[in-house]
Amino acid sequence: MGCVQTVPNDRVAVITRFGKFDRLGQPGLLCLPIPCICVRAGDVSVRIQETSMTCETKTKDNVFVSIQVAVQYEVIKAKIYEAFYRLHNPTVQINSYVFDVVRSTVPGMLLDDVFESKDEVAKQVKDQLQKIMGEFGFQINQALVTDISPNRKVRDAMNEINANRRLRVAATEKAEAEKVVIVKQAEAEAESKFLQGQGTVE
């Protein structure tokens, strides 16, 4: 007697026969004609999935930074077999490769360059991941550097520099405003004296 199962819309079932891969079960009803011989070994999700990780590394100017990277990936439908049998945990593998790429890229850059080139870092992560993960049946849709955070001392120093810069700008603008007021007052006084002088002459 056969066995009927269902496969959710976002998954594909992997069917084995005597322990060997037999076929894929598409979403909907799944018929296993001979239980114990034909077995549903597992399912593969075809949803877009996301993983994020934080990498600790050091820049060229010896600043320790935490870089947060988010990666979106999905199974290539033509490579479900590879995704199921060749890789046990894709998230762990992706995280490991992201760490490798970030730690080989960022140490060659100054801290300011890391901030300015985060899209380039993300592109390198995506390109390297796609080369490797494609063999395991996964497509990398997107890689984003979502946060760059220097260690606390550097952050405090950067905040202080920015605060001082803003204070300098504010002080300059205040001085300029005061200068305009003084010039206007002087012009008004000069004009007043000139008019008074004309009145005396007449």
UniProtKB/TrEMBL annotation:
It holds the Pfam family Band_7. Residues 2-162 form the Band domain. This is Band 7 domain-containing protein. It comes from Perkinsus marinus (strain ATCC 50983 / TXsc).
